[in-house]
From TrEMBL:
<dbReference type="InterPro" id="IPR007197">
    <property type="entry name" value="rSAM"/>
</dbReference>
<keyword id="KW-0949">S-adenosyl-L-methionine</keyword>
<dbReference type="GO" id="GO:0046872">
    <property type="term" value="F:metal ion binding"/>
</dbReference>
<keyword id="KW-0004">4Fe-4S</keyword>
<dbReference type="InterPro" id="IPR013785">
    <property type="entry name" value="Aldolase_TIM"/>
</dbReference>
<dbReference type="InterPro" id="IPR000385">
    <property type="entry name" value="MoaA_NifB_PqqE_Fe-S-bd_CS"/>
</dbReference>
<keyword id="KW-0408">Iron</keyword>
<dbReference type="InterPro" id="IPR023867">
    <property type="entry name" value="Sulphatase_maturase_rSAM"/>
</dbReference>
<dbReference type="GO" id="GO:0016491">
    <property type="term" value="F:oxidoreductase activity"/>
</dbReference>
<keyword id="KW-0411">Iron-sulfur</keyword>
<keyword id="KW-0479">Metal-binding</keyword>
<feature type="domain" description="Radical SAM core">
    <location>
        <begin position="2"/>
        <end position="233"/>
    </location>
</feature>
<dbReference type="InterPro" id="IPR058240">
    <property type="entry name" value="rSAM_sf"/>
</dbReference>
<dbReference type="GO" id="GO:0051539">
    <property type="term" value="F:4 iron, 4 sulfur cluster binding"/>
</dbReference>
<dbReference type="Pfam" id="PF04055">
    <property type="entry name" value="Radical_SAM"/>
</dbReference>
<protein>
    <submittedName>
        <fullName>Radical SAM protein</fullName>
    </submittedName>
</protein>
């Protein structure tokens, strides 16, 4: 088998119990969710398990499965248990299964279910209340911080918390104080945090970014890097860890960084095979394959070898002349696909975060250079 799949993201619920203002699923123009059933049907679950089981028999390396939405915990404990039971019947524990949730619906029963099937839980939390509650809102417009923190408390108190707690996912607010956000996450006791840039592109810049050349996000990330580097026991931050690892000669674990090629497939709530769903933020239907297929009527092994999937996977690699000539390309990888979009020429552009990333990479190089000099001086003393 030539193609290798790294991640299968399964959108088990098409609706969400909150309404984040920056959400690419509901609030950036795509309307596919409105045509979906609210929850994944049993026959779709069965087809997924059949195809993933066959893939596991052919692919030499394990792939990860991520349960997503909407809000995946809207499934409820009975449906979640049955889904995980069927997945684990075909995928041993060497295949990581995780669940990305806003944390509000986390309960002892649901956590017990995840623990029983060896499924880890990642929670979305943007920072302290003043940061989080600006954007992660209820459908009535209220903040969700207190409810999320209650869910995180239940997660941390669970007997299997050391395995279950997969860390936090945070969307950056460039108007916040990065040092304050870092200290908050340290106080929460998160095992790790993954920070994301806001969705946006060349026709609609991300919120908080005033131009292609402005550095709001880059300066924020350098502030985060400064807090991280000053901490003798730093909180693992995947985006920083990966970029520093590349600068030191290693490889990345995250899509949108470095030049590692990741095979990522999305399975929508109705079973339709989709491209990376963050592409929804570029234009309506951008995450759809030209020839619609569902997991119920497609041989997944054959699809992963198809020209259409190969072309989609190749989209991760930048094609713009500016990116290809850039000495920082091996670190930033040209950024996420969605951040390169322009309606005039598609994805053949540098990321809208190009200036921010170059600012951050330069700061990292200075930091590593100073560390090497300090270390050399200490060794010669």
């Amino acid at each position: 088998m030539g193609a290798v799949l790294d991640t299968v993201l399964i959108k088990v619920a098409s609706r969400c119990n909150i309404n984040c203002s920056y959400c690419y699923v509901y609030n950036m123009g795509d309307d596919n969710w409105a045509r979906q059933s609210k929850l994944m049907a049993p026959e779709t679950v069965a087809a997924i398990c059949t195809e993933l089981g066959a893939l596991a028999q052919h692919q030499l390396t394990p792939f990860s499965v991520v349960l997503h939405g909407g809000e995946p915990l809207l499934l409820g404990s009975r449906r979640l248990h049955e889904l995980l039971r069927q997945l684990r019947a075909v995928l041993p524990v060497t295949y990581p299964i995780s669940l990305q949730t806003n944390g509000i619906l986390l309960s002892e029963e649901l956590l017990d279910c995840c623990a029983a099937h060896h499924v880890s839980v990642a929670v979305s939390l943007d920072g302290p209340a003043a940061v989080h509650d600006r954007f992660r809102l209820t459908h009535g417009g209220g903040g969700t911080f207190a409810q999320v923190m209650a869910g995180i408390a239940r997660l941390k108190a669970h007997p299997a918390a050391d395995f279950l707690n997969a860390g936090l996912l945070a969307v950056i607010d460039p108007t916040s104080d990065p040092a304050e956000v870092y200290e908050f996450f340290k106080s929460v006791g998160a095992p790790s945090v993954d920070f994301l840039y806001r969705d946006g592109n060349h026709s609609k810049l991300p919120e908080g970014k005033t131009s292609l050349h402005s550095l709001e996000y880059g300066r924020w990330m350098v502030g985060l890097l400064t807090a991280y580097a000053a901490d003798p026991n730093p909180l693992p931050i995947r985006v920083l860890d990966d970029m520093l690892k590349v600068l030191l000669g290693g490889s990345v674990s995250k899509e949108g960084l470095g030049l590692t090629d990741f095979g990522i497939l999305i399975i929508d709530t109705d079973g339709t095979l989709m491209k990376n769903d963050t592409l929804k933020s570029t234009y309506n239907g951008a995450d759809q394959f030209a020839q619609p297929r569902t997991i119920r009527d497609t041989n997944l092994l054959a699809f992963l070898e198809s020209a259409e999937f190969t072309h989609y996977r190749a989209m991760q690699q930048p094609t713009s002349a500016k990116c290809l000539a850039c000495p920082a390309l091996n670190v930033c990888g040209g950024g996420m696909i969605l951040h390169r979009y322009h309606p005039d020429n598609g994805f053949d552009n540098p990321s809208v975060y190009c200036a921010d990333q170059l600012h951050l990479v330069a700061a990292m190089r200075r930091m590593l250079g100073a560390y090497s000099l300090d270390y050399a001086l200490s060794q010669s003393a």
